[in-house]
Amino acid sequence: AFRLCGDRFPRLERGLLLGALAWTMACLLFDHPNLYDLGYLVLSLLALATIGYLAVQCWRAPRLERVLMLVASLVTQVFGALDLALLLGLRSSESRVYLMPYSVLLLSAVIGAVLVDAFARARRQQERLNLELDERLAARERELNVQHQQLLQLERVRSATGERQRILRDIHDGLGSQLVSS
């Protein structure tokens, strides 16, 4: 949710990651039902905080991917609450169908769509930048070609001037020596 909204909270993200790792390790090492319940409580609170954060971000700058993520998070939270009610016996269902796995499919589809859209936008931007770079490179090559042609022209003029001066020296020296010998 943070990255989707363009925010970065490195400490909070690191803390959430370490907390998830610690809870996973605790569940693997200690098989205690209260540990699972505590984990699910924390996950529910985090989901509510995420929904609140996404709602505020959608209010400030509504974008399709933010709204889709908010809706998917809401559906996931509602389905989770319905599953909890079913588990506690507060909701009756003949087949005891849990809905959370279906909401995770929706959430995964939304996250996948957001990622694909971000990749496609980045790809288009990269192509646009490549075209701009190609145009700038071609313009610079044209400038260098013009400068090169000017340098070649100057070199021809300098070469012709040098040749004229050599011929004039030869004529002058040749004429002077002929006059002296005459």
Task: Describe it.
The mean pLDDT is 88. 85% of the residues lie in helices and 0% in strands. The longest helix is centred in the C-terminal third of the chain and has 82 residues, at 100-181. By secondary structure, it is mainly alpha-helical. The protein is built from 4 helices and no strands.
Keywords:
single chain; 182 residues; mainly alpha
Specify the biggest β-sheet: none
Order of helices and strands: HHHH
Our estimate of the beta-strand percent is under 5%
How far is the first residue's CA from the last residue's CA? 104 Å
Number of H- or I-type helical stretches: 4
Give unreliable regions as ranges. Answer: none
Q: What does this entry show, briefly?
A:
With 182 residues, the chain is mainly alpha-helical. It is built from four helices and no strands. Helix 2 runs antiparallel to helix 3 and helix 3 packs antiparallel against helix 4 (100-181).
Give the SSE layout.
Elements lengths: L9 H20 L3 H28 L3 H25 L11 H82 L1
